[in-house]
Amino acid sequence: MYAHYLLLWLIAFPFTNAPRGARDTTYVFHLIDLAKNQQKKGMPDSAEYYFKRAGELADALSFDNGQLAVAGNYSVFLYEQVRFDEAMTYAERALSISKRLRNRPKTAAAYNTIALQHQARGRLTAAAEHLIKALNISNEIQRPTRHQLSDRRKYLNNLSSLFLDLDDLDKGLQYAWQSFEIAEQLRDTISMGNSLINVMVAEAMSGNLSDAVRHGHQYLQIGQSFGDRQMEIKALNNLADVYRMQRNYPLALETFQKALAITPKSMPGNEVYTLSGISQVFKEMGNPQEAKLYFKKAFKLAETELAKPQLIDMFLAGAAIEEALGNYKEALTLHRRHVLLKDSLRNQEIQKTIQELEVKYETAQHRNSIAERDLKILEQAAELDRKNKWLVIYISTVVILIFGWGGLRLFHLQKRRTKSTELQKQLIEAQLKGEEKERARTAKELHDGVASILSAARMQIHTQIADHDRSGIFREISQLIEIATREVRNISHNLAPEMILREGFAYAIQSFCRRIQKPNFRLHCYVIGPLPELHKNTQLAIYRIIQECVTNILKHAEATEGIVQLAEEQGRLLITVEDNGKGFAVEKSWEKGIGLANLQARISLLQGTLDIRSCPGKGTSIFVEIHGDAQNKQASDAASSVLETIPLF
Predict the structure, then answer these.
(1) pTM beyond 0.85, yes or no
(2) Which of 372, 595, 598, 626 is deepest in the core (most CB within 10 A)?
(3) Average pLDDT over the chain, rounded to whole?
């Protein structure tokens, strides 16, 4: 008995050694934790009591962070209790406080909660707008914590649910898997299960029933392992519905009954799905009387416990049951309610607006992913450099103290390696200079020789067309000469891109990409914003790098589409070359061929970095980063070649 009173005293007066202000503010979070624990145990009245006590204490203390925590958690609790209007009030309060505190992660969480209330009320466009805001804020966080990554997973999973409400199964499945991948990265089994449920629903709706059953059993196993009653009920209901789709009616009824047996009244919404599912099974088994009995029970709960998007299928199921019973008037009424609600939620204008929002989000996400990838590459390089420095210091110290003579030997060996590296660098420079000279010479010969002869032939043909070309032979010959002239011009431009000197670097790259176009291959070129100032020799070297990447696509990738993108970021030139071809094993290609080695050599001379991502069957992505002239003057000198401008045709 004494121990019991002592426990109550500790709960009521925690942290007695702390200052009073600290005890009071900490106690706000203690009350919130108590409320969440009661919520998990299925005791909503007790949970609400603790939430209100926490809110009263936070208001009395004018404790902003406590008020924010209460508003955020209480709004989620109210949403799960199907009290959407109250949930919206607290979610908007959480948004206001988080903005005032400039707490970006909490602002994103508030947007997400508001989106859930809009979705529950059937305001899908507003739901999408707030979800995209939450995801944009989340994706702006450069080094997200584990908790912030978990929040991002929730936002993606909710976006998946929104697209499933719109019957956009591809998008629903896409975002469900993105959510699952984050949960997998966090090694959070509960979150993996919560993402799997949307994967399962999307698969079932698209007819992929075997995978839906497999993922449903995974979800059920997670719920049972962690004693999560809500997950277990959802898993059983969805599995039973898939069994119904497979026409395994006895197993479907058995599974629905299992769900009904463990569903408490404190978890609104779950019993509706179970009763509705049993009703649908009896209807498909040809027993409309029994189906109507369960439907009436489900429908009575649905009008108060279900969100609007979930009522669509209820109306349709009810109409089918009434029609089977010959109650055509009641069936027509339910069918009309189904059509009206479906049109209000899934009309083309709403879907178009949400798709546009999603496209903007994906574009921003792609840019962020490139920036994050570059940042990770730089961080990895810095970390590797730091480790190498410590390793060198350690080895040098040991060698100097124990093997002094070995240190001298290593010094001479390093000196020879440096000379060897410098010699190799000079050989590469000489090779590149020789290539540019030969290209310029060849381009000049093409222009002054072949092109001049073709131009003279074309003029001679033109003089004959008017008087002697009755059959059109000269005109056809003239057209063939014109085609040959253009081909020579393209080859000449590729060999000696004088547009770098005349029209500018960006224009030269875009012109090259246009010339590459073929009927079975589309090459898109994007130049984002103004590019950094680069030495002309550096521009030519970069042109050759892009030219070699694109040539490799044409020769080896068997691609139908490619992208060349150039952008400037803090004085750096970022180059991306991607294709949708057959891909290759990067590590094996480094070992076997010299093509990638030559590409690496060109970029090394510019003191740039190269990152190649590819695997068989999934295309190839090449990322190159070059510093501006201010940072790579030595690289510009190293890459210098003999440039000879060729007159335009």
Answers:
(1) no
(2) 626
(3) 75
